[in-house]
Amino acid sequence: MEALDAFESSGEDASYIAGGQSLVPALALRLQAPQLLIDIAHIETLRGVELQGDWLRIGALTRHCEVLADPLIRTHAPLYSDAAPHVAHPAIRNKGTIGGSISHADPASEFPAMTLALGAELEIANRDGTRRVAADDFFVDLFQTAIEPGELLVAIHVPVVRPGHRWAFHELARRRGDFALVGCGILAEFVDDAVAQIRIAFFAVGSTPIRAQQAEDILIGKRLDQATIAAAQAVAGDDLDPSEDEHVPPAMKRHLARVLLGRLLGQIARQAP
Amino acid sequence: MSALTPLDRPNSYIGRSVPRPNAKRLLAGRGRYVTDITLPRMLHVAYVRSPYAHARIVSINALAAREMPGVRLVATGEDLAKLCTPWVGTMDHFKGMKSPPQLPLPIDKVVWSGQAVVAVVADTRALAEDAAEAVTIEFDELPAVVDIDAAREPDAPVISPELGSNLCFHGKIDTGGIDEIFTGAAYVVEEEFHFGRHTAVTMEPRAIIADYDASEGQLTVHHATQTPYQFQDIYSRHYGIPESRVRVIAPDIGGSFGMKLHMYHEDMAVVGLSMMLGRPVKYVADRIESFVSDIHARDHRVRARMAADAEGNILAMDVEDVTGIGAFSAYPRTSVVEGNQVYRLMGAPYTFRNYRADLQVVFQNKVQMSQYRAVGHPVACTVTERLVDMIADKTALDVFDIRSRNMIADDAYPCTSPTGYQFEALSHHACLAKLKAMMDYDRLRAEQAELRTKGIHRGIGIATFVEITNPGPAFYGVGGARISSQDGAIIKITPSGDVHCSISVTELGQGTETIIGQIVAEHLGVDSNRIKVMTGDTDTTPHGGATYACRGAGIGGETALQAAKKLKANVLAVAAAILQDEPEKLDIHSGWIVDAATAQQRMELSEIARIAYFRSDTLPPGTQAQLSVAHHYAPQGYPFAFTNGVQACHLELDVETGLVKILKLWVVEDCGRVINPLLVDEQIRGGVVQGLGAAFFEECVYGDNGQLTNGSLADYLVPMAVEMPDIEIGHVETPTLDTQLGAKGVGEAGTAAASAAALNAINDAMKPFGGTVAQVPMTPARILKALGHI
Ligand SMILES: Cc1cc2nc3c(=O)[nH]c(=O)nc-3n(C[C@H](O)[C@H](O)[C@H](O)COP(=O)(O)OP(=O)(O)OC[C@H]3O[C@@H](n4cnc5c(N)ncnc54)[C@H](O)[C@@H]3O)c2cc1C
């Protein structure tokens, strides 16, 4: 691909630019000063939303506003649709792309965490071909992912939700459209009104989106009654790793995460068929 | 509906919601802000700023920067000190006040993080920023004075050793016998309040172009400011350029809120840079620079107590305010005015006479703190109104009842406050009654009780306030500051009978030009669409105070009114000569000379103008038509025109998350004669939003080392439309008798009490849980702490 070649020939002093909604602010602040900007916004293979058997393929260049309105995403990967209205503001959603958001991997971003909750796989291209990385292995550290320098995120592949699946999303933010104080998306599979599988992904609580694994373990095999929810809430804080921040202290993040988890699990419990 | 109201007279514009004639132009993108202006041969400056809050400058190396592409000049504090004399932000009437001399750029040390140190001038801003990165400054870091208590310790590092301490000003008020009153009182409440720093965040940042033309010795400055005359005076005196050779033009201004009336170091430097280069130099603060160099507001810690008798009659207040102002007092208005208004406005709506207060204004290694919309008001209002609510709790009185029991009666004027403010006529009780009806208070209380049983926690808070407007010379002039309290206007009739008014009050988006047009139209007797109002250019308008302290309508408006009347008399004199009638029997309606008694049209104003300008030969001998007038007006009655009002806030608190939904805000306000209801209401709404910003969102947070930790719009939260409630406004009109117009100020009323009403509402919502909050902004973290969750 031309874009991959351009990166190679720049001596790695280049940046891909998709919607520019994270990159341009960084350039304006002089935090980054690449010699070359490679505009990927018109690469056709990175576009489109398509159902491929049990998987939904979402092109990396799908813009936030398209995620918000797309009927296939609404049906098959609904956590993205639920999260989209909380991503920034209309002007930014008109330009920003889901691939840019996931590649940028801001730990406070909605889409990376929903990628984790949905158990999606990320298709990455380099000059030798493409590979798929599971969401659980994709988010490495603060703004760091499995994408190596010069590689491109091509598409997100989401296993489609099935009957028996329930989900919920919410975030706590001081102003609508802000990065959240704490946010969470949950995808659960129920068998006989008991939790068979569950993925709880928090954001803005550490250096990457984080799964609340201890809480998940408690919930598996259980009905979502008040005592079970309380037990999951009790351990949820331990899974998180909020950094010292004088504006939002870690104790507050943990408290809010527990409150949010309780509310979302309550919501899921009430979704009984 | 047959009775005629005052609005049914011809040309009756005062009191009408006339839309702003300049709004269309701005909406159409035809605004001309300083940023839009490009002058031939113009250069751009970028500043290298201090990363330290307090440090000695050891050396500056600009060799590499000077070699960078497009660089025309790299200048340091020493270079500019050769051209510009130092300034000191003190006023004589604040006895004992001190502040160190300031220069455009520092010579040997920096005193806040973000202070500009070196100026780099280049062909474009981008090139200047590139070169600024190549300047290396060696600093020797000094201990930073950040905390207001640590700053006053005997062994604290002294920021300006020549001043001997970090205390800028110490003020005291004591009406006597306070301790005895508190000892004998049935109830005493007390609280420690914290008011965080916040800042203006104008849509248009600070912007300036200085253009020094050595061939004429002429300095022209395009400056985004609300006070061009003040800056004309400052540039003239500090750069030694005769005043007649200094022209300051304030074009369209994108918000100011007091922030753009202070002398900023970068702005002063731009003038010197232009003189050094003989070329125009532009500086536009970017958002990050705005956060570390625009003035901040507030920053007070107030310990206060209030005493009341067994019936809930307030007996006395005892207040101690410590406020941090940065390393300097701002020039030329000083940073003491805020604290001065805090400790003089305490308890202003109430009848009690016993008051003691101590004000300490403290230097610290932060950016300067100074006047911003509603100077001192929200602090005085919040402290007073929270304490009043605490007395209400003790005495089991309703929040309305405690206030009506203690407020000055509407027929008790004129009277004075315990701190010496003279009130001509206020209307606290009328406003309170109107507010209670507007908000349907009893229903809200019943609803609150019912919802509490369902786990929904709503709060209702009210706050009464007094606002300082229309200041006379006692405000600045007597303190030695060359800031005018008078205004001037020139009105002329053009040959086709249009009217041109140039006036010294300025337009910042608040609608000054609109109301001046309304006043001139009404008092001259012409249609308002034939009037053009010009503001903001020291070469073409008379000298005046311009815009500050809510004086535009009251003082500028009265100036326009008197000037229009003078011009009308001149017109009627010529008309009488032409019509061979007596001037007293004539009047002007809609641009026609009419018979005063019958309103019968006699002659068009345009015809008078045609004759006066082109056929003066046909006028009777000795008649010299005076179709232009110049007129000045300075307030001479009360030192200030105080206004009053009351606000109520209704909100819902999520007691698990600390997040707040503001449901509604009501304001009843008395600004005297309302000239334009639309503009008055929008002033109040905008002010309320800034007050709610301070209450819930806005705070400049510093680390222990004096670093601002949230200086960007991603981290510093301004209130946005979604979070703002509907704001319902009512009016009571008590015109001032000091002027013919009767208008007082209104621009700060919204900000004065919104945060106080919000704070009372939050405490009301938290009542079942026992916690209280006495700090703004009321962030989720602070609320959760008060509720015991973290
Ligand atoms: C005011 C504001 C508020 C915002 N609020 C939120 C919010 O609440 N929640 C939220 O999640 N986000 C928010 N954002 C960020 C926004 O969602 C960005 O659009 C998104 O993070 C990046 O997408 P982009 O297409 O604009 O990427 P760009 O800015 O173009 O790129 C971002 C980074 O990703 C890389 N990149 C982009 N696409 C690819 C690709 N296909 N393969 C490999 N690398 C790639 C780029 O090289 C760059 O390093 C906000 C942004 C702004 C300006």
Concise summary:
Chain B: Pfam families: Ald_Xan_dh_C (PF01315), MoCoBD_1 (PF02738), MoCoBD_2 (PF20256). Chain A is α+β, with helices and mostly antiparallel strands.
Structure description:
The complex is a heterodimer of chains A (273) and B (790). Chain A has 273 residues and is of the alpha+beta class. Chain A folds into two domains: 42-159, Uridine Diphospho-n-acetylenolpyruvylglucosamine Reductase, domain 3; 165-270, Enolase-like, domain 1 (2-Layer Sandwich). Chain A contains twelve helices and 13 strands. Chain A has a five-stranded antiparallel sheet. Chain A has a four-stranded antiparallel sheet with strand order 10-11-12-13. In chain A, strands 1-2 form a two-stranded parallel sheet. Chain A is globular and about 60 Å long. The model of chain A has no long low-confidence stretch (mean pLDDT 95). Chain B has 790 residues and is an alpha+beta fold. Among the domains of chain B are: 6-31 and 486-633, Aldehyde Oxidoreductase, domain 4; 34-142 and 200-291, Aldehyde oxidase/xanthine dehydrogenase, a/b hammerhead (Aldehyde Oxidoreductase, domain 3, Alpha-Beta Complex). In chain B, 28% of the residues lie in helices and 24% in strands. In chain B, strand 20 (499-503), helix 14 (512-524) and strand 21 (531-534) form a beta-alpha-beta unit. The interface between A and B is medium-sized, with 19 and 25 residues. The site of flavin-adenine dinucleotide (FAD) has 31 residues of chain A, from strand 1, helix 2, helix 7, helix 8 and strand 9. Chain B: This is Carbon monoxide dehydrogenase.
